[in-house]
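input
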Amino acid sequence: MVMGSMGTHNNFFTTQNYNYQTLLLVFCGLSIPLNVFAFDWRLRPSLSMSEMFSDNLELSDNAKKSGFVSEVAPGVSIQGASPWSNLNLNYRLQGLYNAGGRDAVDINHQLQFNSLYQALRNTLFLQTSI
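output
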């Protein structure tokens, strides 16, 4: 009789009960606290547009020319933090169009970057800045 009850108990681990086993594993996996992997990453896209008026577009003392300057600047900001690193990156692609002067569009890349990485806990740090 003892053998019979052991046989029914082992039935849970047969191939017919894979759905129950999967459900049990998923439940156990979801019960692990999520703050063990303390990552905080934020991605923020941006877009700025402006129109400026200048009475001296070419910054000249003799040939002063007035006109409008249009600016369009898409960008992205990435901020990340974890127990061993911090990252801050800001990038903008600035496009300037001088309606009163040249017909060309001036493109400027603007980047700001800071990071701190802890290679060995409380011993060796790597810090970068641009």
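quick obs: The longest helix spans residues 18-30.
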